[in-house]
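Anyone have tokens for Acetamidase/formamidase family protein? Sequence:
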Amino acid sequence: MGSVVDVFSRDVAPALTVDAGDVVTVESLDCSGHLERQRVPGEQRPLMFTERRGHCLTGPIAVRGAKPGMVLAVHFEELTPAEWGWTATAGKDNWLLRRLRVADAGRSWLLWELDGGTGTNQHGHTVPLAPFLGVVGMPPEEPGEHSTIPPRPEGGGNIDCRELVAGSTLYLPVTVPDAMLLLGDGHARQGDGEVGGTAIECGMTSRVRLDLIVDRPVPGIHAETPAGLVTFGFDADLNEATATALSAMVDWLQIEQALERGPALALASATVDMRITQIANETWGVHAVLPTGVLG
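Reply: yep, here.
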């Protein structure tokens, strides 16, 4: 299925309507919407949108019966990258690139060949692939068009969390009737932080199962992944994003381990990892991870 958009909007007609429990296979272009692969790093090739406003995303997918107050569970069953990808950094002026002393430099590009479980760039560097979708989300409840760039505490969006590989389930509070889910921004691999502004950007074939849930043990966006339980915080203030992610994880530990809040925080201090999800998207992303198997 596929209709391609570059903004979030509740007013866009769905490309597909499904029932809770259905499995959907989604083809998405890379975040820039390349219609043809680059042959050399940084080569200008035809794009889906000549004046792109945001990520090139597929959807919306309407889920019958979804309404605010529910949670949409996105089960990632299979994620298959395209045969090539790219990474680019610098080429603009912001506080981080100035601090890293690359704001005045030209844009730097890596061109990756993606073969099975390995990516190889033009310099001969090889990396194991761990594909996931950077953008998974629903539009804000307000009408009109909304940017795809920042992640949002409700409904998701540009989350950019590298733990959301196949076998993960992402839980998103529903923001609008029928959910109107958009998917895209395939990443063949990314480090925590997406420090240069892009990952290994690529097209992706994604098989996902969509469910509706009334109750979850914790509020906000969270996930169950092969790496462990994950809670998120998004805010312009890094401290606030960190506190949100950690607070939700402490909530989860209270419920799962039948603890008062103080002992749950103490247990978190011994077991939970705090990570910077991304620093590139106008809003800090932080995630807390309770690693699989850490508690006996």
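The CA atoms of residues 10 and 203 lie 24 Å apart.
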